[in-house]
């Protein structure tokens, strides 16, 4: 697709003016320059003479990106990649498939071109990480030794932690989950299932006022805004045809968004809908699919005894089980690092990040094994779990790895950048960009406003930017 075609496609979008479309095109000249060909761009080797055997584990956004960047950074790269997947899922697009804006094929592409002939590709999964001996054992028993390791294994879903639920029930009994994917097989069934779910809710709303619950667990999740994206898009899917339902957002958290500015903006969005009830402190713990009952552990605080010394009331933590009937439920599963990491000494052994990869939040170097780095969702750092974070981490990881290969200190620092394109309705997005210090918008626009330009940018530009530019280490 060339620049003109892209502009035409953007203009076809009913809600976008030509002015906005042109403005949006101007935001990303790099996209146009890398859109010329339909295949991944191969990069000439250049740069440092540093040597050593590097093993990358994972075949997703972070892994492919560091692979491309290492090719640029090293003149004689010796890279092995352990990844099971021939196919790559563009996971941010799963929400657009759910909304009916993309087809499932738009978000799956071939991994082979990215991995290329110059890397040794072990099509398998790492099951044992043995950092004391610098080796990995795969599912099929291959032992892989390394000098330097980059872990990019992402997250693992735990639908089974919700009693009565298993992943194969998604798509039945009014249950959906946009997250459902199998990255080892390169599939993302939850996306299309959720579009069918949108249509089923719509159909039911023609004759009744169904109750729809959207859940969010207490664990870290990838793209923390996606549970709300589904909430607002499914509500708007009805609203567009003057239909309605009772929506409940049942979240284990205490507010809509961690940053107060974005939290306030989302509360305003909800006021506009007028049919959403928030149930905070509600963790989904069980499903009775036959009877359509969801059970939550509700944690809350009440006022306790008055403390005369401190001149204040004590706060007493309480919890109770709450069961809610529903007609439709969208479930965001609890998430954790993949088992191979959780069970290894590479993971944090205690604290809130227990089980996630123990890397320094700025250098992304392992805190106990200096020849190990992490990128992407697997990292046990306070921010991230977005492709946006991963994109910003790529140059840091590669730059710092090359430094230690040259026996120098890792100097580059990740600032915690992350981005959440919150789809507040069809055609509008709040582009929440922030880092360890707070809001960090890339463009001089009030980032608390839902904007059409961000919808078009996300829908039409981000997928090709990701596919042709980011995965090729060009941005
Ligand atoms: C529904 C949804 C919506 C999202 N929306 C957005 C968005 O709008 N914006 C945004 O920036 N991000 C979004 N994200 C998040 C984004 O997709 C991830 O943050 C990003 O893909 C992280 O990259 P990663 O490399 O860490 O993990 P992944 O891309 O998930 O890749 C992990 C890889 O590791 C492989 N793997 C796992 N275990 C092993 C093993 N033991 N051995 C070898 N390989 C293994 C997997 O097969 C996979 O290839 C969304 C994600 C989802 C699911």
Keywords:
alpha/beta, FAD/NAD(P)-binding domain, 475 residues, binds flavin-adenine dinucleotide, globular, 5-stranded parallel beta sheet, 2 domains, 12 helices
Would you kindly provide a written description of the structure presented here, covering whatever features stand out?
By secondary structure, the chain is α/β, with parallel strands linked by helices. The chain has two domains: 32-84 and 123-154 and 338-417, FAD/NAD(P)-binding domain; 159-335, 3-Layer(bba) Sandwich (FAD/NAD(P)-binding domain), CATH 3.50.50. 29% of the residues lie in helices and 25% in strands. The chain is built from twelve helices and 23 strands. The protein has helices at 3-12, 18-27, 29-34, 61-73, 93-99, 112-115, 189-205, 226-239, 260-273, 339-342, 387-405, 452-470, and strands spanning 53-57, 78-82, 87-89, 108-110, 120-122, 126-130, 135-138, 143-145, 148-151, 155-157, 175-176, 211-216, 246-251, 276-280, 282-288, 293-307, 312-325, 328-330, 335-337, 372-374, 418-425, 428-435, 438-439. The strands form seven sheets. Strands 5-2-1-9-20 form a five-stranded parallel beta sheet, with helices on one face. Strands 11-18-12-13-14 form a five-stranded parallel beta sheet. The longest helix has 19 residues, at 387-405. The model is unreliable at 13-26 and 29-45 (pLDDT under 50). Flavin-adenine dinucleotide binds at residues 57-63, 82-85, 91-92, 94-95, 125-126, 152-154, 178-179, 183-184, 222-223, 226, 338, 340, 376-378, 385-388, 390, 419, 421.
């Amino acid at each position: 697709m060339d620049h003109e075609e892209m502009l035409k496609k953007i203009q076809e979008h009913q809600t976008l003016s030509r002015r906005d479309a042109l403005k949006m095109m101007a935001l990303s000249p790099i996209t146009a320059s890398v859109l010329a060909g339909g295949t991944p761009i191969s990069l000439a080797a250049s740069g440092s003479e540093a040597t050593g055997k590097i093993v990358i584990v994972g075949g997703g956004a972070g892994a492919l990106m560091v692979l491309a960047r290492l090719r640029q950074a090293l003149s004689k790269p010796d890279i092995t990649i352990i990844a099971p997947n021939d196919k790559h899922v563009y996971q941010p697009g799963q929400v657009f498939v759910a909304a009916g804006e993309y087809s499932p094929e738009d978000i799956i592409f071939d991994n082979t071109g990215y991995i290329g002939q110059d890397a040794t590709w072990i099509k398998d999964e790492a099951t044992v990480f043995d950092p004391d001996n610098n080796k990995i054992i795969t599912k099929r028993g291959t032992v892989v030794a390394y000098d330097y390791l980059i872990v990019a294994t992402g997250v693992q879903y735990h639908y089974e932690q919700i009693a009565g639920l298993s992943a194969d029930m998604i798509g039945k009994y009014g249950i959906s989950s946009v997250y459902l994917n199998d990255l080892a097989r390169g599939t993302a069934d939850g996306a299309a299932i959720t579009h069918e779910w949108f249509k089923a809710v719509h159909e039911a709303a023609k004759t009744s006022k169904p109750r729809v619950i959207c859940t969010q667990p207490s664990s870290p999740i990838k793209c923390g805004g996606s549970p709300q994206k589904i909430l607002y898009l499914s509500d708007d899917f009805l609203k567009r045809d003057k239909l309605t339902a009772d929506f409940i957002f049942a979240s284990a958290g205490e507010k809509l968004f961690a940053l107060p500015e974005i939290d306030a903006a989302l509360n305003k969005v909800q006021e506009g809908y007028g049919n959403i009830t928030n149930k905070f402190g509600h963790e989904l713990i069980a499903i009775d699919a036959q009877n359509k009952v969801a059970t939550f552990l509700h944690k809350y605080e009440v006022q306790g005894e008055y403390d005369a010394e401190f001149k204040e009331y004590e706060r007493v933590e309480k919890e109770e089980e709450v069961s809610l009937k529903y007609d439709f439920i969208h479930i965001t599963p609890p998430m954790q690092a993949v088992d191979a990491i959780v069970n290894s000494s590479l993971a944090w052994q205690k604290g809130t990040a227990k089980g996630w990869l123990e890397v320094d939040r700025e250098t992304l170097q392992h805190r106990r094994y200096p020849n190990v780095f992490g990128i992407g969702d697997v990292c046990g750092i306070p921010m991230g779990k977005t492709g946006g974070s991963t994109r910003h981490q790529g140059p840091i990881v590669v730059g710092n790895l090359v430094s230690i290969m040259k026996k120098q200190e890792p100097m580059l620092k990740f600032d915690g950048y992350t981005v959440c394109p919150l789809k507040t309705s069809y055609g509008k997005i709040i582009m929440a960009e922030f880092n360890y210090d707070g809001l960090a918008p890339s463009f001089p626009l009030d980032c608390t406003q839902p904007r059409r330009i961000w919808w078009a940018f996300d829908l039409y530009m981000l997928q090709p930017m990701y596919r042709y530019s980011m995965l090729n280490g060009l941005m």
